[in-house]
Amino acid sequence: MRSVTIVHVAEMAGVSVKTVSRVVNNEPNVSAELLPGSRRPSRTLGYSPNIAARRMGGAKSYLIVAFNDRALTLENWRSDRGNNWIDRMQYGAMLECDARGYHLLLELIDLESEQLERRVAAVLSTLRPDGVILTPPSSDHPDVLAVLARRQIPFVRMGSMADGPGHSVALDDAEAARVLTGHLLELGHRRIGFITGSARFAVSARREDGFVEALRAAGVSDPRAGVTPGDFTFEGGARAAEILLAQSPRPTAIIASNDEMALAVLHVAQRLGLSTPRDLSVATFDDSPSIRFSFPPMTTIRQPVAEMAALGARILIDAAATPGQADRSHHLLPFELIVRESTGPVQA
Amino acid sequence: MRSVTIVHVAEMAGVSVKTVSRVVNNEPNVSAELLPGSRRPSRTLGYSPNIAARRMGGAKSYLIVAFNDRALTLENWRSDRGNNWIDRMQYGAMLECDARGYHLLLELIDLESEQLERRVAAVLSTLRPDGVILTPPSSDHPDVLAVLARRQIPFVRMGSMADGPGHSVALDDAEAARVLTGHLLELGHRRIGFITGSARFAVSARREDGFVEALRAAGVSDPRAGVTPGDFTFEGGARAAEILLAQSPRPTAIIASNDEMALAVLHVAQRLGLSTPRDLSVATFDDSPSIRFSFPPMTTIRQPVAEMAALGARILIDAAATPGQADRSHHLLPFELIVRESTGPVQA
DNA sequence: TTGAAAGCGCTAACAT
DNA sequence: ATGTTAGCGCTTTCAA
């Protein structure tokens, strides 16, 4: 079935194709009477402009591409643990795109590849997106940023605090860690363990820094004593928890740098016969579904990931709509401490 | 920066654009010497064909669109509970697309809309995908199927057992329910509660049927006694669990039609002072991360969702590559019973 | 085996 | 306020 084109609509309306184009794109210089006149046939015929042809005509592509790290995505798939962060990012961006007549395309890129620049360039040539969303750890990858900048394609770095080119949307992870740590300090905890994230992600260091600073500010001696390396996986979290809980005196609270490791802490504590929060308080960072449904539901930092992504998409779509705007901007979104049942006052 | 086109490559190679096109698309009738000759410049220049132009030229679009129900997605986003099924579907399809030079585009459609047909048609006109993946509940929506069939766009219905047009990839949910129920029967359970899913999804009835059949086959009198309505949400699952656990005599096991409701059962049981699996066995269906990390980790049916989606994408890509193939096929993938710690022998 | 030319559906630039 | 024309980058005829 050949589909209806702008020519059909124009013929039916008895006007030129350009007029139809103007109406469809809400351009000025169309007489008011024409609006319904041209619009009616387009409705009747069920016309919607073909995106490829539009792009060929020199207009926008109505495409936003989000780059995800391939290795991460693959591993995620294999382990099937559901990377909630990416999902929420996608929902937010997709909804915003959808509302603005845009389409979101997820693309896998191999950050470790030697051909990274070439690959990124190829995707851009092939797809011609109006904008690109970068998720960690590509948000801070110099090669990716370089290609994007060279091509002059608007892009937004998600979750990056680094001062780089393009737009960025993030939240203050260090401050979030300080707030979370502060919550435990208020409950009387002094021996607090902290399981770090993978060094590949800039966020790991930021959270660790916030934790250490909060302890230092509270006058805790040797604030780094409880810092134990983790890697964002359940297994890594379990190992770290075992190390921490074998210490004497034992920490009365543990902060995990992500939810999966926090779940692991809960498991290890349970195995050791420790009750949460009576014997051990546990707090974490991402507020994924799993920790809301855990025993007990966990205290955490709530990040507005979907909102961040929606903002990112909005910035790109606006940039495509009004060229010549600033090509850099920096946005910090608020987070929220959510106190649940996994944290309680330290027992005497 | 103007990007490199086929013309540049042709000039550099000293051949016609058509020859370059042939090389790029692995078409026959190119002399062997030309292959490296034309390919070298294309590498040097970093050429990749523009998808929009390709499409305009009458070739494939290299696009697969997956339709998701908008209301479901929105609700999912708001409740932020992470619809693992969709995520796994997407991973599988995306990886397959990526491996074949394709791109996956998620589109939201409003199944409740009166303009559904028009909207679907608009997306198809706009994007011109080479194929469409339908996720439940759109897999069985007659209007959606009608538009697709009329347009002659290859599509695959995911998780649909209905005998309809197009391709379908599913697993035998009824059989899965029978196997899961059989596991409990073997452990000696006779009073088994079953919390159904939402009636909007065809899978709900299939699982319920399998459960009832298994009990009947085992000679359990009144096999429908334990069937209690649920809706796939945590709250709905909790309500159903409360009803079931208030019965006297109490069921010794409960099967929930999805993981979120199973988590709710665990919560309610815990609140009532029932220990799992000693006092109550719990089993469920989707094997999402949350039930692997729950206390205790739950017995479940493992569905190869990503593999199903990958197969779906493969079918569509193959169909686009070799027109004239059968436009219907039906695939049933195997599932797996995974026994964890939430189910145990009935206590005397 | 190779190439020249036409055209896909749309929009930008340039008339009118 | 409206229409005409010339591409956009590619692939398909069809011819050499």
Describe the structure.
2 copies of one chain form a homodimer. Chain A has 348 residues and is α/β, with parallel strands linked by helices. The first copy, chain A, has 14 helices and 12 strands. Chain A has a 6-stranded parallel β-sheet, with helices on both faces. A 6-stranded mixed β-sheet of chain A has the order 7-6-8-9-10-12. In chain A, strand 9, helix 13 (289-292) and strand 10 form a beta-alpha-beta unit. The longest helix of chain A has 17 residues, at 305-321. The model of chain A has no long low-confidence stretch (mean pLDDT 91). The structure holds a DNA duplex (16 and 16 nucleotides).
Query: What global shape of chain A is seen?
Result: elongated
Q: What distance lies between the first and last C-alpha atoms of chain A, to the nearest angstrom? A: 77 Å
**Which structural class do you get from the secondary structure elements of chain A?**
alpha/beta
Q: State the helical fraction of chain A.
A: 40-55%
Give me the Rg of chain A, rounded: 25 Å
Largest sheet of chain A: 6 strands, parallel
> Mean pLDDT across all residues of chain A, rounded?
91
Oligomeric state as shown: homodimer
Portion in beta strands of chain A:
15-25%
Question: Most extensive interface: pair and counts?
Answer: A-B, 64 and 64 residues
Number of β-strand runs of chain A: 12
Stretches with pLDDT under 50, minimum 5 residues of chain A: none
